[in-house]
Amino acid sequence: METLFTVLLFIFAITLIVLVLIQPDRSHGTSASMGLGASNTVFGISKDGGPLAKATEIVATLFIFSALLLYLVK
Predict the structure, then answer these.
(1) What is the DSSP letter of 42?
(2) How far apart are CA 9 and CA 69, in angstroms?
(3) Other Cβ atoms within 10 Å of 5 Cβ, number
(4) In the chain, which ranges are continuous DSSP H helix?
(5) Residue range 18-40, pLDDT digits in tens
(6) 48: which DSSP letter?
(7) What DSSP character marks residue 41?
(8) CA-CA distance, 16 to 57, in Å (whole number)?
(9) Full-model pTM
(10) Of 16, 40, 58, 64, which sits most exposed with the smallest number of CB within 10 A?
């Protein structure tokens, strides 16, 4: 059982890394990360991110649950 959760954790980790790396950059440089010139993203317009962001959320959730299950099995 421990081996199964370890393999799943490894697969989810690699998948999560790949999903994060292939997502498009939504920032506009250093000024946007500090809140300068991007007032519509703080309280106003929210970008969904599309199916790639949703897949990242799902894999991140699976990664966390598999890590917790691995901890409980050990």
Answers:
(1) T
(2) 10
(3) 19
(4) 2-22, 30-33, 50-73
(5) 999 999 887 665 555 566 655 55
(6) -
(7) G
(8) 9
(9) 0.71
(10) 40
Rounded to whole angstroms, the Cα distance separating 71 from 56 reads 22
Would the CA dihedral through 45, 50, 54, 59 be positive or negative?
negative
Q: Scan for tokens 């929210």, then name that residue.
A: 46
**What is the average per-residue pLDDT within 39-60?**
78
Rg (CA), the chain: 17
Q: Residue 28 is encoded by which pair of tokens? A: 């506009």
The structure tokens 């999560």 sit at 16
**Measured distance CA(26)–CA(48) in Å, rounded:** 11
* Pairwise CA distance, residues 7 & 32, whole Å: 38
Three-state secondary-structure class, residue 37: coil
